[in-house]
């Protein structure tokens, strides 16, 4: 089984309404043992209620796997980075510290790193991940590029992110305003901006 090549996962943070439906639905994925693998973050709590769903970006060269001393994290041929394998995970939290997107979480009760695996039991047979299937505003969308472009004509997908001198390419794509469409999102530079500029720079809100 593999995720069909014409289907992609898109995040449009500007559409997130903070309803937590995705967080609750994630617990129902058969591989998650009743635990959610995603969470919501507030962009700038002091100034705005804007939230952003945090899911695994499924990097082409996953840092979490590169720093794992037990070789417990594997990337499937179709580009999905899996949770740590129980027989090999030593609960060292290297992956938790290394991920530039802050995704992996150490489940101390299981002594195991668990994270979003794009509901692989579903996406590998062409079904939507649980979070994307319930998102009322389609901030999380699983489908073809043609479908997302028809729904978001003012936005374009980005799958390259820069952290200082490191550039990371991801399987999951983030939607950004098309008229200010960058080649990549420079996360480190954006974090140095004042909050209003930061949200636009990160593609979280449309430009005026």
Order of helices and strands: EHEEHHEEHHEHEEEHH
Oligomer, anyone? single chain
Shape: globular
Query: C-alpha Rg, in Å?
Result: 17 Å
Distance linking N and C termini? 44 Å
Instruction: Describe the sheet with the most strands.
Output: 5 strands, mixed
Mean pLDDT: 86
List low-pLDDT spans: none
Class of secondary structure makeup: alpha/beta
Helix content: 10-25%
* Tally of DSSP β-strands: 9
Q: Please give the CATH class of the domain at 8-59 and 118-201.
A: Alpha Beta
Strand order of the largest sheet: 6-1-8-7-9
Stated plainly, the CATH topology of the domain at 8-59 and 118-201 is called Alpha-Beta Plaits
CATH architecture of the domain at 8-59 and 118-201: 2-Layer Sandwich
Number of helices: 8
Percent of residues in beta strands: 15-25%
Summarize the structure.
This protein is an alpha/beta fold and 208 residues long. Helix content is 21%, strand content 22%. The protein has a five-stranded mixed sheet. The chain has a two-stranded antiparallel sheet with strand order 2-3. Strands 4-5 form a two-stranded antiparallel sheet.
């Amino acid at each position: 089984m593999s995720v069909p090549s014409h289907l992609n996962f898109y995040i449009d943070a500007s559409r997130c309404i903070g309803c937590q439906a995705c967080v609750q639905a994630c617990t129902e994925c058969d591989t998650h043992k009743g635990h959610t693998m995603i969470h919501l973050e507030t962009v700038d709590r002091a100034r705005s209620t804007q939230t952003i769903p945090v899911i695994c970006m499924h990097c082409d060269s996953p840092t979490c796997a590169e720093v794992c001393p037990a070789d417990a994290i594997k990337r499937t041929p179709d580009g999905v980075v899996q949770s740590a394998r129980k027989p090999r995970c030593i609960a060292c939290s290297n992956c938790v510290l290394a991920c530039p997107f802050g995704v992996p979480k150490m489940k101390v009760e299981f002594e195991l790193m668990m994270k979003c695996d794009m509901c692989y039991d579903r996406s590998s047979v062409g079904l939507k991940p649980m979070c994307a299937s319930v998102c009322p505003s389609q901030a999380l969308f699983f489908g073809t590029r043609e479908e997302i472009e028809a729904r978001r004509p003012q936005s374009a997908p980005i799958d390259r992110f820069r952290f200082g001198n490191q550039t990371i390419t991801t399987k999951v794509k983030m939607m950004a305003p098309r008229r200010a469409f960058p080649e990549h999102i420079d996360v480190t530079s954006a974090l140095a901006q004042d909050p209003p500029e930061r949200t636009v720079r990160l593609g979280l809100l449309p430009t005026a």
